[in-house]
């Protein structure tokens, strides 16, 4: 039996809700085979990020070399990328091994405010990795920071942002509206031709830790299975919506999603 193979290049979350742990759970639930290259170890729980310990650049390169020299991956998802030299190295492997399904979740910080990718790394991300992407999935805070805007608060500002972000060379941009004020969380997908709105009534749920990681991983799994970008995003939205609806209260703060909810949906 063979399964589509999906690689996540991201940080570890000791709390199990975001990063590598969310990614591997998502791959498994979507009947794909998950591989992982770890960029950093975070000491993290539902309350926040207590410490970040990047793996060494050699450690990162050794993992990339082991995976790419042996296994032909069908899709790659990236999350926390630490710094510019890590991004350079990852871009080289993505290019050299002709990865043509790449989902970039441009994680800059945690929802609780800790820096996970250095601000100075944004230029490297824009210049070397972004143009290789099938889709980049910023949230409103990341999009505003990368564009140098104060904030993005409305759907019409989101539309302006998604067009500008598309000019940096990715095939498509999915601008996520989870942080949009109001009762709806709208995501916008722009592929250079068509702008698609994915509206969703906001679920009143404090346990949303790892939503961005989970969405991007579900998209990567969908692409690895041969779906179009539009169908992969549509399935991933259903996956994350089910998972948010049944999020867990397991600590004092914002708990993780229930990654099994999609498989068991009615
Ligand atoms: N409370 C919510 N109800 C419904 N969908 C949500 C909610 N919060 C986030 N989402 C969805 O989860 C995904 C992740 O979005 P977002 O929270 O903006 O990203 P991030 O986790 O990177 O901050 C998006 O598809 C968004 O629309
Ligand atoms: C290792 C790691 N990667 C990514 C996130 C972002 O996840 P979120 O935006 O849901 O807090 C995180 N908190 N930790």
From TrEMBL:
Start and end residues of each Pyridoxamine kinase/Phosphomethylpyrimidine kinase domain: 13-258
EC number: 2.7.1.49, 2.7.4.7
Gene3D superfamilies linked to this entry: 3.40.1190.20
Annotated signal sequence range: none
Any GO MF annotation of the entry: phosphomethylpyrimidine kinase activity
Enzyme superclass (EC): transferase
Reaction catalyzed: 4-amino-2-methyl-5-(phosphooxymethyl)pyrimidine + ATP = 4-amino-2-methyl-5-(diphosphooxymethyl)pyrimidine + ADP; 4-amino-5-hydroxymethyl-2-methylpyrimidine + ATP = 4-amino-2-methyl-5-(phosphooxymethyl)pyrimidine + ADP + H(+)
Pathway(s) the chain acts in: Cofactor biosynthesis; thiamine diphosphate biosynthesis; 4-amino-2-methyl-5-diphosphomethylpyrimidine from 5-amino-1-(5-phospho-D-ribosyl)imidazole: step 2/3; Cofactor biosynthesis; thiamine diphosphate biosynthesis; 4-amino-2-methyl-5-diphosphomethylpyrimidine from 5-amino-1-(5-phospho-D-ribosyl)imidazole: step 3/3
Organism domain of life: Bacteria
Database matches in InterPro entries: HMP/HMP-P_kinase_dom, PM/HMP-P_kinase-1, Ribokinase-like
The entry's keywords: Kinase, Thiamine biosynthesis, Transferase
SUPFAM superfamilies reported for this sequence: Ribokinase-like
Family: Belongs to the ThiD family.
Name of this protein: Hydroxymethylpyrimidine/phosphomethylpyrimidine kinase
Gene that encodes the chain: thiD
């Amino acid at each position: 039996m063979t399964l589509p193979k999906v690689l996540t290049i991201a940080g570890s979350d000791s709390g199990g809700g975001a990063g590598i742990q969310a990614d591997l759970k998502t791959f498994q639930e979507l009947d794909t085979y998950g591989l992982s290259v770890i960029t950093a170890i975070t000491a993290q729980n539902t309350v926040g990020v207590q410490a970040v310990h990047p793996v060494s650049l050699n450690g990162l390169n050794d993992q990339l070399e082991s995976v790419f020299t042996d296994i032909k991956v069908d899709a790659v998802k990236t999350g926390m990328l630490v710094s510019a030299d890590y991004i350079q190295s990852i871009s080289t492997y993505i290019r050299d091994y002709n990865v043509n399904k790449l989902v970039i979740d441009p994680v800059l910080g945690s929802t609780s405010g800790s820096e996970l990718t250095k601000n100075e790394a944004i230029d490297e991300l824009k210049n070397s990795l972004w143009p290789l992407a099938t889709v980049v999935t910023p949230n409103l805070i990341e999009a505003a920071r990368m564009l140098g805007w104060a904030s993005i608060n409305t759907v019409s500002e989101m539309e302006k942002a998604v067009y500008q972000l598309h000019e940096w060379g990715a095939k498509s941009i999915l601008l996520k509206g989870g942080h949009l004020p109001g009762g709806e969380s709208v995501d916008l997908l722009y592929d250079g031709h068509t702008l698609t709105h994915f509206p969703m009534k906001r679920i009143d749920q404090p346990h949303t830790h790892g939503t961005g990681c989970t969405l991007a991983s579900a998209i990567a799994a969908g692409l690895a299975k041969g779906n179009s970008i539009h169908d992969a995003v549509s399935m991933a939205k259903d996956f994350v919506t089910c998972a948010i609806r049944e999020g867990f209260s397991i600590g004092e703060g914002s708990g993780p999603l229930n990654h099994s909810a999609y498989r068991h949906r009615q």
